């Protein structure tokens, strides 16, 4: 009852925050049993506190475009939970950004970061600024204005933002430059930095590599080798690129990419360096389309369509939230998909996830499967604190170890709580217990 009451109260207070309510509902469904059995959770109002961000910062971001006209966007930073460490999470620049999306991402991040085993709380930020078609000078002007407000709220031991959709090394550079200028300190306040100014090797690839390490562990539990497997992925951004790169190294065959314009099907596979590097070119071009891949490599392009109807063994959505719905899930099921792992945050709709779980398809939620990005950010923070740089091999080995641990923790927790094989319950229970136990230890704050 307690769980349902808190959820109802939250939904009636924020009925318009749909994405946020969906992510809270998913966590609460998984933990219902343990909550009802542990009276301390209710006594100390853990659920009421865990859904309330510690701080919401929303601010004006004025900047000038290339024609000298003044533009205004809204900036956000949601500092959700700092029970386990300083606030940590990415910044998203996309026209769809609003407070509900920021809150759901920050809430998810809190649990994702708990799973990594590293000392990081949860946060998210960004702006409804649309980088599409903007010049370099406009991006810089926007980033400098954004940081001119954000700098007073963050710090290497307080809140450490990073990249997400629309924010890569270039944007992190402009943000870091402005922070350094305003604070007169060179500190690890952002992750995803360039390699010459405090960044970590492997961070650009880390989210994609991590998803593949996780999916590989899922296959191993079934005694299946990843070599030769057919993989459908969506998106063509940072996460998609890292995923394709690692899968090709492991001799699996990625046959699709997608963008807002449609998807491409490359039956021979995106396996050689020329094709993989072309993803970076498409991203830099800022054109927002994958059609040019089809033109360049003479493969088929399906305008306005999603890739989930293509027969595959693994499906890895890497674009954005709610991009794989019940119809797509049915297609995948019909084509006998073995593993679905979320590279993006909440790309599968609630009913799609239910379908996978009810049909015993191995399904990994983003908060577990895509934790490689923030894990590597945690490794970047450690290197910054120690003022040293680890080799590529060392960072990659640590990343792989973290992903295997997350997999095994989710697996073991699901088993322990009578939900064997269910990674959603495993991830939610494991992460919730860690965050809520810490909150209990820290008192009513
Ligand atoms: P990028 O900006 O590099 O790529 C995002 C991709 O998704 C682009 O192809 C983009 O096209 C597409 N996309 C974004 N929003 C929409 C939309 N509303 N409709 C259709 N397509 C869309 O971002 P990332 O690769 O970094 O992020 C992809 C996903 O992975 C996100 O869900 C992000 O939260 C998640 N993630 C990222 C991590 C990281 O470290 N970067 C870590 C963990 C998760 P368009 O140009 O139109 O935006
Ligand atoms: O969603 C995510 O985990 C990220 N965008 C990465 C966050 C980070 O702090 O590296």
What characteristics describe this protein?
globular; 17 helices; binds (2Z)-2-iminopentanedioic acid; alpha/beta; 2 domains; Rossmann fold; binds NADPH dihydro-nicotinamide-adenine-dinucleotide phosphate; about 450 residues; five-stranded mixed β-sheet
How would you sum up this structure, described in words?
This protein is α/β, with parallel strands linked by helices and 445 residues long. The chain has two domains: 2-187, Leucine Dehydrogenase, chain A, domain 1 (Rossmann fold, 3-Layer(aba) Sandwich); 206-364, Rossmann fold (3-Layer(aba) Sandwich), CATH 3.40.50.720. The protein is 50% helix and 15% strand. It contains 17 helices and 13 strands. The strands form three sheets. The chain has a five-stranded mixed β-sheet, sandwiched between helices. A five-stranded parallel β-sheet has the order 7-6-11-12-13, sandwiched between helices. The protein has a three-stranded antiparallel β-sheet with strand order 8-9-10, with helices on one face. Helix 2 (18-37) packs across helix 5 and helix 15 (372-386) packs across helix 16 (392-416). The mean pLDDT is 97. Bound molecules: NADPH dihydro-nicotinamide-adenine-dinucleotide phosphate (NDP) and (2Z)-2-iminopentanedioic acid.
Ligand kinds: NADPH dihydro-nicotinamide-adenine-dinucleotide phosphate, (2Z)-2-iminopentanedioic acid
Low-confidence stretches: none
What is the domain tally? 2
CATH topology of the largest domain: Rossmann fold
Biggest β-sheet: count, sense, barrel?
5 strands, mixed
Average residue pLDDT: 97
Strand order of the largest sheet: 1-2-4-3-5
Through-space gap between termini? 24 Å
Number of strands: 13
What is the CATH superfamily label of the largest domain?
Leucine Dehydrogenase, chain A, domain 1
Strand content of the residues, in percent? 5-15%
**What is the structural class?**
alpha/beta
What is the CATH top level name of the largest domain? Answer: Alpha Beta
Query: What is the N-to-C order of secondary-structure elements (H for helix, E for strand)?
Result: HHHHEEEHEHEHHEHEEEHHEEHEHEHHHH
Number of separate helices: 17
CATH architecture of the largest domain: 3-Layer(aba) Sandwich
Radius of gyration: 21 Å
Q: Which geometry do the CA atoms define?
A: globular
| Helix coverage percent | 40-55%
